[in-house]
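Work Package 3 (structural annotation) set out to generate three-dimensional models for the target panel prioritized at the project kickoff. During this period the team completed the workflow that converts sequence records into discrete structure tokens, so that structures can be stored uniformly alongside our sequence database. As a representative example, we reproduce one entry of 239 residues exactly as it appears in the project archive.
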Amino acid sequence: MIYANWPAPSNVTAFITTRERGASRGIFSAFNLGDHVGDEPSAVHENRSMLQDSLGTSRSVCWLKQVHSNFIVAAEESDNPQEADAIYTYQKELPVAVMTADCLPVFFASKSGDQVAVAHAGWRGLCAGVLENTANCFAEPSELLVWLGPAIGQKYFEVGDDVRSAFVAKDLDADQAFLSVDRSNKYLADLYLLAKLRLQQLGISAIYGGDFCTYSDTRFYSYRREGQTGRMASVIFFS
């Protein structure tokens, strides 16, 4: 696990898992937490049980059915995951999670430590406003603490002009997050910078993280690197 490096209150726990030491085998080796990627269900169940046991809370992790949207939901303890790409909670000891394998996980915490959230920010959700929707679930968005978890680095995230145009249409400053490459209408996109620009527009200045690359660091699953692969979990809760 890699814990968030941010000045959150001491009662807030936030981390992302790595692919090391788990029950999954082959291309999913070893700590795959995604139940939708083709891995053996028994291995995923064992991995999720291991994760649950490590948390120190009896309340079950709240998972989502992620759809690359800007939807955010309040956490509910249920066997049927809600369809959304961000989740928040006011409830103590209730872990909330998103899964990623190159997309950007973004952690949110109030400075008082009484509300937390986490968002799955692929480029579609990020462009559509998933971070804005998540921040606006808090009473004072500008007072939030935010940590940008491991995502694909700009060097490896090639996109078409459709992606660049979609961001620039919403914010001209977003153009600085795209580096043109030799091939026509291809760009290298900086997910971290795109997220920071959106957060800063909300008045959020306490932004941390953004210093990993899931593609180049083999501790992480990477869809761009491997195609079919597992998923890490980004988990946050408060006590």
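The domain at 2-152+212-238 is CATH 3.60.140.10 (CNF1/YfiH-like putative cysteine hydrolases).
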